[in-house]
Amino acid sequence: MVSLALPTGSLEAPTLELLAAADLPVSRHAPRAYRGTAGHPAVDRVVFHKPREIPVIVAGGTCDIGLTGADWVAETGAKVEVVDTLDYSKSTRSGWRVVLAVPEDHPARTVADLADGVRVATEYPAMAREYFRRSGVRATVLHSHGSTEAKIPDLADAVVEVVETGSSLRQNDLRVLDTVRRCGVNLVANPSAWADRTTRATIRTLSTLLRAAYAGPLHRLLTIVLPTDRWAHAEPLLPARWWRLDTGAAPGLVVLQGVCAAPEAAGVMTSLVERAGAIEIVETPIRRLVRDDLAGAPPRRDATH
Ligand SMILES: Nc1ncnc2c1ncn2[C@@H]1O[C@H](COP(=O)(O)OP(=O)(O)OP(=O)(O)O)[C@@H](O)[C@H]1O
Ligand SMILES: O=P(O)(O)OC[C@H]1O[C@H](OP(=O)(O)OP(=O)(O)O)[C@H](O)[C@@H]1O
């Protein structure tokens, strides 16, 4: 059994949605309660914490595993095992960025155009210092505790800040000068918990459930009926992963299934109809998807066809 730290704030709602989709539904006696359960025998308790504190809490062993922003894993330098990265954020199924931003009318085109002594406000002083060290610009980094954009122009000339949709930067007449780091949500584990064989197996099981629930809705299952004699036209148009269904389809027909990224489904379907004479295609949403290449492992040679 493991204890799980979950993020409050921006990541709270999408994380709870993901856990529910992974059949790890979190229940609490009240919406603002910080403790709960995850409806799975492998999780003994759930505790909500600020995302910036989760890496340190997990490193210290108060919780065995946690979900939190990769920005805070990097910023704190906490000694945790990063088990997986899931690219979702407050409002999208993609990650977010920590960026260097300056006022719209600032003349700089790149970070190198910033003068030595530039004042930079940020919630990420360690990340910002490392970024400026690599860039060769001597910046004065000011630790901000939020509402960072407000520090310009009185307290700072630039910010190192989270951007997702870009709306906050636009509303404060700022623009992105450079990306400091791309971020997603990290599943992190305490190193001792990870070193224990039984606990590691439990963490892997939970990681697989989360990854499957994350990946499923981003993909579609296509079931395709083709005239056998159009096979040569169809093959190059199929999704990268496909297999033949030995269904005893009507003579002269072949039935296939394939999985593709959701945004590609419409294109695959229309090209198979228009260029390969497909006579029926069914697109099915996917609730959960486990696939070796999505888990970061190299695809097995014998995985499909
Ligand atoms: N669109 C987003 N906006 C802000 N944070 C996001 C977004 N997407 C993901 N995150 C993650 O959530 C963290 C912010 O968490 P939270 O909403 O609790 O804000 P906070 O700044 O830590 O606290 P507070 O809102 O109380 O100042 C970010 O540091 C980042 O790791
Ligand atoms: O690109 P966007 O979609 O606008 O999202 C990014 C904004 O959201 C966060 O602010 P938050 O609401 O956490 O307030 P804070 O700055 O006080 O932490 C972050 O600090 C940015 O300001």
From TrEMBL:
It catalyses: 1-(5-phospho-beta-D-ribosyl)-ATP + diphosphate = 5-phospho-alpha-D-ribose 1-diphosphate + ATP. Its main location: cytoplasm. The keyword Amino-acid biosynthesis applies. Residues 50-210 form the ATP phosphoribosyltransferase catalytic domain. Pathway: Amino-acid biosynthesis; L-histidine biosynthesis; L-histidine from 5-phospho-alpha-D-ribose 1-diphosphate: step 1/9. The keyword Cell wall biogenesis/degradation does not apply. GO terms for molecular function: ATP phosphoribosyltransferase activity. InterPro entries: ATP_PRibTrfase_cat, ATP_PRibTrfase_HisG. Keywords: Amino-acid biosynthesis, ATP-binding, Cytoplasm, Glycosyltransferase, Histidine biosynthesis, Nucleotide-binding, Transferase. It is found in: Cytoplasm. It holds the Pfam family HisG. Its EC number is 2.4.2.17. It is an enzyme of class 2 (transferase). NCBIfam families: hisG. Catalyzes the condensation of ATP and 5-phosphoribose 1-diphosphate to form N'-(5'-phosphoribosyl)-ATP (PR-ATP). Has a crucial role in the pathway because the rate of histidine biosynthesis seems to be controlled primarily by regulation of HisG enzymatic activity. This is ATP phosphoribosyltransferase.
